[in-house]
Amino acid sequence: MKKLPIGVATFSELIENNYTYIDKTAHIHRMVNEGKIYFLSRPRRFGKSLLANTLKNLFKGNKELFKGLYIYDKYDWTQNYPVIYLDFATIGHENPETLKTSLNDFINMTKMEHSIELVSENLTSKFTELIIRIHEKYGKKVVILIDEYDKAISSHLDDIEIAKGN
Fold it and tell me: Which of 3, 59, 100, 165 places its Cα 20 to 30 Å from the Cα of 17?
């Protein structure tokens, strides 16, 4: 009997460790081919993080993880895309200054990962430039996946000033 993936939000871990997985890649295939921007709002524990991580693996072209799943022989695996995966659960957000510093660090680590240089100083401009430079480097659309987008706010509902600042 396969193990249940309670608390597992990493697609590769789920597949490589033989956890039970209900194949939802038919829906992912439709999403990828019919849409452009999605905002997924569901209650906690509904698999949003697993979906975002699955999309990351799909767009990076990690074909072997999808063997035996609906999408395996329907997706163009010759195409892979640069992915910016921003998970706010891993970004410091104790206060607005920490959040800003952590986001800046994330951008700096992402630029190093892709061996690109940025000139922008302003955080918004810097993120925009990051996307543009990655697109220029690879000549491909850049996939942006944002997980736990509300973490910096929802974690501070007991201190409304920090929540507002974040």
Answer: 59
CA distances from 6 to 61, 88, 93 (A): 26, 21, 26
Same domain for 159 and 87: yes
Domain ends where: 80, 109, 135? 80
Domain enclosing residue 116, as ranges? 81-166
- Exposed, middle or buried by CB within 10 Å (0-12, 13-18, 19+), for 20? exposed
Question: pLDDT tens digits for 63-118?
Answer: 999 999 999 999 999 999 999 999 999 999 999 999 999 999 999 999 999 999 99
The answer to whether 93 and 99 are in contact (CB under 8 A) is yes
pTM for the whole structure: 0.87
